[in-house]
Design a protein that fits this description.
The model has no long low-confidence stretch (mean pLDDT 92). Helices cover 29% and strands 20% of the residues. It is elongated, with a radius of gyration of 21 Å. It contains ten helices and twelve strands. By secondary structure, it is an alpha/beta fold. Helix 9 packs across helix 10. It folds into two domains: 56 residues, no CATH class; 267 residues, Aldolase class I (TIM Barrel), CATH 3.20.20.70. The strands form two sheets. A ten-stranded mixed sheet has the order 1-2-3-4-7-8-9-10-11-12, covered by helices on one side. A two-stranded antiparallel ribbon has the order 5-6. The structure holds S-adenosyl-L-homocysteine. The site of S-adenosyl-L-homocysteine has 15 residues, from strand 8 and strand 10.
């Protein structure tokens, strides 16, 4: 069987391959679309426009395997968590979050994570390995097929790279996956529907502009270097100051905001002083702050602040003229909320 995954072969590369065999372009696009959107579960043995020989050639020249849905859990609020098994037996999770008629799909970029953030369940696992581009795309394709399985046809979803892993630590694969997702017939995803969330992994952040124009979310979590280093050990090497310096080199505007994520840990980083320092720290940028109240997990060392404190923190930021949203927690009854993904279906 071929090692080249069909689900990371871009339209352009598929065209080159197709023409290389001496065939005229046209039907290749319809075949690719059908395979990607699930119309064909595998390469069909017959096709009105394509010869049997060529169909066979396609079937044997590419690998069509997708991450296997090992388990699927639905929460009471409609959130669905998928546990995928990869070819080597490793497992990763994706989550589909319903917002009105549209889903947001939260995808993983690595099995485990190397960042070891103090408050994150995934971080307790360490990094197992980077995902391949087709394993990232494959999560999307499988979840999207599942959401469509009753012929429901929900609107094309948004994608957030907020599952397991630090996406910018797996830059090449992330880049390929995003290029594939935004350029393949049958997917029709715009770069603005995709958000990459990062802890500020500098080697990747410095290459930000190599990516299609997707949205950036920075997990800040504290405006103070010392405290951030305690929460996010990587801050020692890639400090707030350095992150801001890199962000300063890019253009941001009214239609291109930075999302700063701020995890609220009860009694740790939720004071008025923190809110004021946070506002000052992000002042140079057109941005939006996403407040994420901590989601506890088994054995977690932090606590979630009260709803009242979350509202208070928000109002402190608003006083400083910072646009702020509180992220609604979804799927926490099945450990599918932010930071709860650690392959522990229980
Ligand atoms: N590595 C990326 C993606 C991680 S998950 C990043 O750091 O941005 C997406 C968000 O969930 C991050 O902001 C992360 O800090 C946050 N998060 C992690 N653990 C959490 C928890 N237990 N409760 C709430 N949010 C959490």
């Amino acid at each position: 069987m071929s090692e080249v995954s069909f689900y990371s072969t871009t339209l352009e590369d598929f065209e080159k391959w197709w023409q290389g065999l001496g065939h005229a372009l046209g039907p290749h696009k319809r075949l690719q679309r059908g395979l990607v959107n699930g119309l064909y579960p595998s390469v069909p043995s017959e096709h009105p426009e394509i010869s049997r020989e060529l169909l066979n050639e396609v079937a044997t020249s590419f690998d069509f395997s997708l991450p296997n849905v090992f388990e699927r859990r639905a929460a009471s609020d409609g959130t669905i968590k998928y546990l995928f098994e990869l070819k080597d037996g490793l497992k990763v999770e994706s989550v589909a979050l319903p917002f009105h008629k549209k889903f947001t799909l939260c995808l993983s970029s690595q099995a485990g994570c190397a960042m070891a953030c103090e408050f994150c369940f995934t971080g307790t696992q360490g990094l197992k390995r980077h995902l391949e581009p087709h394993e990232i795309v494959g999560q999307y394709i499988q979840v999207w097929r599942d959401l469509n399985r009753n012929g429901d046809h929900p609107m094309t979803p948004n994608i957030v790279f907020m599952g397991q892993g630090e996406p910018l630590h797996n830059f090449e694969a992330l880049k390929k996956a995003i290029e594939y997702l935004t350029s393949t017939p049958g997917l029709a995803l715009g770069p603005r529907q995709i958000t990459v969330s990062t802890v500020g992994y500098l080697p990747g952040l410095k290459r930000w502009e190599e990516l299609p124009p997707v949205n950036l979310a920075i997990s800040l979590h504290s405006p103070f270097e010392k405290e951030r280093t305690k929460l996010i050990p990587m801050n020692r090497a890639y400090s707030i100051e350095k992150i801001m310096e890199v962000l300063n080199g890019y253009e941001w505007g009214r239609r291109k905001l930075i999302n700063f994520e701020y995890l609220l840990l009860g009694g740790v980083n939720d004071s008025h002083e923190h809110a004021k320092a946070l506002a000052k720290c992000i002042e140079p940028f057109p941005c939006l702050v996403n407040l994420i109240p901590f989601n506890p997990y088994p054995g977690s060392p932090f606590k979630r602040p009260s709803d009242q404190r979350v509202e208070e923190f928000k109002s402190w930021l608003v006083e400083e003229k910072v646009r702020t949203m509180v992220r609604v927690t979804k799927g926490d009854d099945i450990l599918a909320a932010c930071g709860q993904l650690a392959n522990q279906f229980q």
